[in-house]
Design a protein that fits this description.
Layout lengths: L6 H10 L2 H22 L10 H22 L4
Length: 76
Amino acid sequence: PKRGDGPGTIAWRQRMAGQPAQAIYRRRFATERPHAHMRNHGLRRLLVRGIDKVKAVVLWHVHAFNFLQFKRLGLA
């Protein structure tokens, strides 16, 4: 624990020090990064209505994210 941590933070740090919690966070990382990328690029609120239109907007963001990853890796 770090100096100044409250009891809840201390308990959280102890839980996160274990292997099961680290395995969960390794899996979560794969989805958190694309979600953060989409939020940072304006997908906080949707300006369309209807599930089909929402799917289309999200799909465009997914394609853009994937293209940027390919470019970063030198594959595009």
